[in-house]
Amino acid sequence: MRLTLLLLLSITFNVFAKTPPSIVFYYNDVDSVRELINYDRVVVNAKLITDKQIQTLHTAGSLVFAYLSVGEYDGEVLPAALADASPAKNENWQSHAMILTNPAWQKHLLSEARKMTDRGFDGLFLDTLDSYYLFADSKKEQNIQQQALAKIIDSFHQLPNQPKLIINRGFEVLAEVDAPIYAVAAESLYDSYHPIDQTYHKVSESDRIWLAGKLEEVKKLGIEAIAIDYIPASDRDRQKSAAQRLIREGYTPYISDGLLYEFGTSTIQPITKRVLGFYDGHYGAMNSSQCHRMMAMPIEYNGYVPDCQDVNTFNFSRVDMSRYAAVFTWLEQASFQRVPALSQWLNTIIFKTPVLFINQLPADNSLLARLGIQSSGDLNGKITLTTGNSWLKNRYPLRFSQFETQTKVTIDKATVTPLITLKDEQQNTSTLFFKAGWGGAILNPLPVASLANDTEVWQIDPFRLVNETLQLPAIPAADVTTESGRRILTSHVDGDGFPSKGWFPGKPYTAEVLLEHVFKKYTFPQTVSVIEGEVGKRGLYPKESPQLEAIARKIFQLPHVEIASHTFSHPFFWDFDKSVDSSSYGENLPIPGYTVDYDNEIIGTINYINKNLAPKNKKARLILWSGKADPKEDILAIAEKANLLNVNGGNTYVVRGNDNFTQVSPTITWYPSAVHVYAPVLNENLYTNLWTEHHDGYGRAVETFQLLGKPRRLKTIAIYYHMYSGAYPASLKGLTNVYDWAIKQKSTPLYLSEYAERARTLYETGIAKTLSGEWQITSTGIKSIRVPNQIGYPVTSLPELAGWNQGPDGHYLILNKARTRLNLSVNNPQSPRLLSANAPLIKWQKYGRSIQWSFNSHVPFEMELVNISQCTLSSDQALTKKQMKKNTVRYRSNKAGIFQGTLTCNNI
Questions:
Q1: Which end of the chain has fewer CB atoms at under 10 Å, N or C?
Q2: Residues of the chain with pLDDT > 70: what percent?
Q3: CA 125, CA 147: separation in Å to the nearest integer?
């Protein structure tokens, strides 16, 4: 290659930059991209990542490169077409070295590269460029292979998408390549890995000097030099030091394990966010397990990702513990006995990762002895509490059944701290709840009691349990309760009861009642659904269908109403793997001649609504699950493939006198191929005893919103009900009371689809730290981050952070970009910032001393700014200004819509 041309075409890298863009080389299975999104560039095995995951990485602002072995075929058996193209084998990796001049191999490589770029990869990482040395002994043969290699690299650049090219070494051909080289990577500058014996070693000084010299030549050409060194993630501090050294020497660093199976250190270190929980699939599916129903919510609240796994199918031989902050088990004794591999595996991680045992201890006595625990014998007679009242205060009384034995558990108090202890009539003592340096245990009948009315109650504070045993460090937490610094407000209606008649003069349909008294009256975003089987011609009421459809059209024409589907026949059960009693409800609406077809329930009804009921300017793109609202991954995938959002399900219901967190669900159920978004709060059925009494009972939803807003903001203000709430004057009054309270709150009204877009990405939000100690937040949809009070005040001088508002439990950041750098301070900064707005933020971009801003408000616009005494604000629409307390200024309009303007300050 001609060096002048290389310099002109290369995508240059400033070697003097203190912090180059981060990069990750990751060749393990990709179940989620929640860690990969922390990196600016991602190199993966194309076979192990889905198109959806590539799109998510792009949403996060990451460039995605596909690994391509140019000099070796890494399958065990060569295809017949390539049989003549491999004269040697690489014994280190058990792969086949390939003749680069072979036309079949060249064709294969170009075909593979085209497939990758067609899938959306931004570039290719070209590996094994020097494998021809395994068979090319003479200088002449080596030159021939090098010329062929240069042509192969050039052919990749000539593909339609012109992928960016990172090459692994290939120093010998740089001068021969005409294609621009994005970067050159080289392994083992200081630290190496030997795959044969799986050991780590320091690179010899002579090898290091040689490689450093080659990389200096690369940098002189204006090409980024990436140094890949090998240190496992179990030594993060050493990884960090190694990366800092490489940056000082002008390299982009990546430090990881020898197989590149862990998430390593580059210019950032990902924060370990997953919490691994075990349940037993013999007793039910993941979404019905205590792991999910009880523990996911408090873990999620702390900013971590609950990862519930079936102990019967989990592969204990391949666990990357660098991604797990803690482990817990919620199992029966039989589960430990059935799966001895669990205890064996726990023996390898204990004292390295916090572990919490819930309900039962392992059956392995040697493991227990190592932990300072002995489980032997039973307590006898009446059992009383000896210590632990502070944990049980104001909780459901702790009771012990005379029909169940209570195992006697003793602890080594020098290493284990008892929290709740017991004694029996013979003064035998036992520990029911304890913590230790390695984690802790809370045992049956704690922490949750099952009551006679088929309900469950936490007998201790679940947040305190998590905080004191799992030892999760406080981190910025992804949040879906808040938007633009204010609590989110949504309203959505299931279509049930649309054709029912209301107890009002003239016997109107309930949908007509709601149209006149709710949908028209309250003009903030509302999401309204219909059941096709109730309003459509092929449903239960074909004669009434024209009139019912006309009402639906009037509702959907309202500018603040979003359209959704509540299915075709309202299936009551979506998971028939469970044993269900359908006698009370049937399985779906009794539509003559119809058998449930899930494609029809999801896609068919969306098409019906868009064709027959929706106005031209909007379409339905949201399904509200019916009945138990418990679809499994395969059902969710139908909606996912049709690009439909989904909401409903969960179990969130609390009122004064019944405010137990067992009925506060997590935000979502996450699966690799789809996400189930729960309704933030349940509907009026829970407030009216399944619509059998207290028809005005939904008015108590205000209590729910208050209880879930303080002292922790756990859920949005989510008004959720059915069409049949328009049946009675009492039910209508209860509903409008909730609306009247909601519109008085300082909130940000959103459509349910907007909430769903944010919620579904909750677990795929990246939290990392730069090597200089800044937080880095990467969002694939989340707009709000809660910074716990104890870790400091956000510093808003960085342009990508619009501002923050103080909530009941932390500082709620207002994000404006996919990737945000964040500094924290012990003092409250006095720089200008956005405090809050009642609208989603579109833009907050700094230019010199000015900030260009814009919002899309669904209601008359309002925003508040702080510390702007040295600022002037302009807007494209008239705004009234009011000076508030604490250096706060409020701007208002009597209109909704898009607002934009400029904030110019002398102190930014």
A1: N
A2: 96
A3: 19
